[in-house]
Write a structure and sequence with these properties.
This protein is mostly helical. It has 6 helices and no strands.
């Protein structure tokens, strides 16, 4: 795998340490310090992301909707869930970085597409479209 470009299509990291560009740089620097770039192929990152998403589901497995909602008020459970969320975000940020995808731009474009696909007056409060397609 070729060395990663310094700025593969991303905005420069700003001063906000929680911005997408800053988090992308943080994850990139973490990976580069450990020389993991050769392992961070799109395929491997997609597989790792899927595995972490499955781990995120685990605390909710077999719970009723009410029990799942209550996890947010249990500090220990919330910490476990937030750690799994962070793992998902880390792999997603890394995959976008490796592939040169501006994740912020991709999210904006996708929401704009969904805004056209799911007009508010047609889908408000519905889980399914009139044609059987899923809305949320």
């Amino acid at each position: 795998m070729a060395p990663e470009p310094e700025n593969p299509g991303h905005r420069q990291a700003g001063t906000d340490p929680h911005s997408l560009p800053s988090l992308t740089r943080l994850v990139r620097d973490f990976s580069q310090a450990r020389e993991w770039g050769r392992f961070h192929t799109p395929k491997n990152l997609a597989m790792a992301l899927a595995g972490e998403a499955a781990e995120l589901m685990e605390p909710f497995q077999w719970l009723t909707p009410e029990e799942a909602d209550a996890l947010g008020s249990d500090p220990a459970a919330l910490e476990r869930v937030s750690q799994e969320m962070a793992d998902v975000a880390i792999y997603l940020l890394r995959m976008a970085d490796v592939m040169g995808v501006d994740l912020g731009d991709a999210v904006v474009r996708k929401v704009e597409l969904n805004d056209r696909r799911f007009p508010v007056d047609e889908v408000r409060g519905k889980a399914r479209m009139d044609d059987g397609g899923e809305a949320p």
